[in-house]
Write a structure and sequence with these properties.
Helices cover 40% and strands 25% of the residues. The chain contains three helices and five strands, in the order αβββαββα. It has a three-stranded antiparallel β-sheet. A two-stranded antiparallel ribbon has the order 4-5. Helix 1 crosses helix 2.
Length: 137
């Protein structure tokens, strides 16, 4: 079994380090906003069918469970991306004679072996070529 994984302990620690806000909307809906330590928000909601059956604590707990499920998904993506970049890093090679000035400074252009379409490259280049609006007026 691989040691590359997300653990329930990690998810619980992340959840406990987050700030939570919950509100009742209308007569039968609970909304919870979880702000992760890095500032990212996860918002979930829960509703019942009959307002007489509404219980805020049950709605919160359902939202908490869904938020933790989303955390598993997000942390899994992050770990997969870090693994991908660790494998990719040695494969990224400079392209001879080409410079890249996306950041506003001259830097070496690199060949990226990832799935990038010509259309998305052209769209990015067109966006970069558009003149900036003058906001000094």
């Amino acid at each position: 079994m691989s040691d590359i994984s997300i653990t329930e302990t990690h998810i619980n620690a992340l959840f406990n380090q987050s700030s939570l806000e919950d509100i009742r909307i209308g007569k039968k809906t609970t909304v919870v906003c979880c702000t992760l330590p890095n500032g990212f928000n996860i918002v979930e909601s829960s509703s019942c069918i009959d307002p007489e059956n509404y219980r805020h604590d049950i709605g919160k707990n359902l939202c908490f469970r869904r938020i933790k499920d989303k955390m598993w998904e997000l942390e899994g993506y992050l770990l997969q991306q870090e693994k991908y970049e660790a494998i990719l890093e040695p494969k990224v090679k400079p392209i001879e004679g080409q410079d890249c000035s996306i950041t506003g400074s001259q830097s070496q252009a690199f060949e990226y072996p990832g799935p990038v379409s010509e259309e998305s490259i052209r769209a990015s280049e067109e966006k970069l070529e558009q003149p900036e609006e003058n906001t000094d007026e």
